[in-house]
Design brief:
The chain contains seven helices and two strands. By secondary structure, the chain is mainly α. It has one domain: Arc Repressor Mutant, subunit A, CATH 1.10.10.10. Strands 1-2 form a two-stranded antiparallel ribbon. It is globular.
């Protein structure tokens, strides 16, 4: 079954902390402590996000990690794609793999639609929305609205 990796989930949680501090920065130790993620593992994840040009880092006193763009301009797909790769729930959807039987496959349109739906949801969830203080009911309503946009 399709499952988001720990690395992907931790990346979203780390970016959440960095977004909350925007436009200021936040240190590796602060993110690690607040999100209960190993410093070593977190450093690897943040390095990938830095390479993807989502964050920048600075050393020394007052150093840390800062978003390169406002939280309203970064979505979950932006965060997950550099860590997880392109969204491919089946090998036939992956352009690198493909499948010679796509035209005859009864399930291909379903896999393609499902992949498009997941990608749409990820692209519609912005860090700016996640850092808003919402009660559980508001969070549920937000999730409902995001999914409705993708039908």
């Amino acid at each position: 079954m399709f499952k988001l990796s720990t690395k992907g989930r931790y990346a979203v949680r780390a970016m959440y902390e960095i977004a909350k501090a925007y436009p200021q920065g936040v240190t590796l130790d602060e993110i690690s402590e607040k999100q209960k993620i190993s410093r070593v593992y977190l450093a690897q994840i943040l390095n990938r996000l830095r390479q993807a040009r989502l964050i920048r880092s600075s050393r020394g006193p007052g150093g840390g990690y800062v978003l390169r763009r406002p939280p309203e301009e970064i979505n979950l797909y932006d965060i997950l794609e550099p860590l997880e790769g392109p969204l491919c729930i089946a090998s036939c959807i992956d352009p690198a793999e493909g499948c010679d039987e796509v035209d005859e496959c009864v399930a291909y349109p379903i896999w393609k639609k499902l992949a498009n739906y997941i990608e749409c949801i990820l692209k519609n969830v912005k860090l700016g929305d996640l850092i808003k203080n919402m009660n559980p009911e508001e969070k549920e309503h937000y999730a409902e609205n995001v999914t409705l946009r993708c039908f």
